[in-house]
Amino acid sequence: MMYLAHTAHWQFLGLMTGFLAWILIMAATGLNEWRLWFVDDVSVVTSGVAWVGIWRACFYSHALSGIENCRGIGISDTFAPAEIHVAQVLMVLALICGLVGNISGAVAVRMVYFSVEDRRNMRLVFVLAGLMYLLTGTLCSVPLAWNMSSVLNNSSIRFPPEFHLPAAPVRQRVG
After folding, report:
1. Helix (H, G, I), strand (E, B), or coil: what is residue 9?
2. What number of other Cβ atoms are within 10 A of residue 19's Cβ?
3. Do 151 and 174 touch, CB atoms closer than 8 A?
4. How big is the chain by its Cα radius of gyration, in Å?
5. Closest CA to 85 of 96, 73, 97
6. Where are the alpha helices (DSSP H) in 153-174?
7. H or E element at residue 133
8. pTM of the complete model
9. What are the start-end ranges of the E strands in 20-145?
10. How far is CA 104 from CA 25, 78, 107, 136, in A?
């Protein structure tokens, strides 16, 4: 069975790629720059640009206290459109599925490289890791595509007054 460890380099590369993708999904989940809003009224938003993410909306202002002003967007906020709530849930589920895929991939690669005597379930563990990676990719692609569609349609968000943002931007860009 020593030959198996010499041919498992592609599986190890797949595990490293899955781990890197999981880190990138974590970064994308926490970013504020899902949408870039360009606004006309620069009295409050002095930079003319606001960043709207799935967890908060931020902008630079010299008129308000502090340079960067951010307000959180929760899953129970009624002003946020459905795509933001769906993105919050699906991105967290993608992180969880990616973690399960990384753990099962690491177990499978460990079974190959360290000659675990019980090799009956090795293929099953590799298949589980691959399916978790596919599910992770699907779960994070849906919010990204929905956000892209909303930006291209110049969809608006009716922010409450404490956000100091207009209901609709002049134009939007994908962040």
Report:
1. helix
2. 16
3. yes
4. 22
5. 73
6. none
7. helix 122-152
8. 0.87
9. 35-38, 49-52, 56-60, 68-72
10. 18, 38, 5, 14
